[in-house]
């Protein structure tokens, strides 16, 4: 005995609405997580490099971007201090609270071979 499976008609509009609803819910949850992190994140300043630590240099924060900080190095090059290395997911409001443009920080530099690129910069051991 064979019987056919009865399917509902394919409704592309309904499928797209459901995808959009799920996407909006996901974005809203992510936004709430970022806002919560901005309110509660505290950088432990005892774990970052201090001035005079071996193998470190002084850099000046040039710009704050969503991913972290652009730091001017003593040799004139620029480096990226990633927000993830600070232990947070980034976001300009949070990063503006941690360090200010023009502030001098102690960093360790990992050179990147690309002469036009930015060096990799670390603030913690």
From TrEMBL:
It comes from Ceratopteris richardii. GO terms for molecular function: nucleic acid binding. InterPro entries: NA-bd_OB-fold, S1_domain. Residues 54-125 form the S1 motif domain. This is S1 motif domain-containing protein.
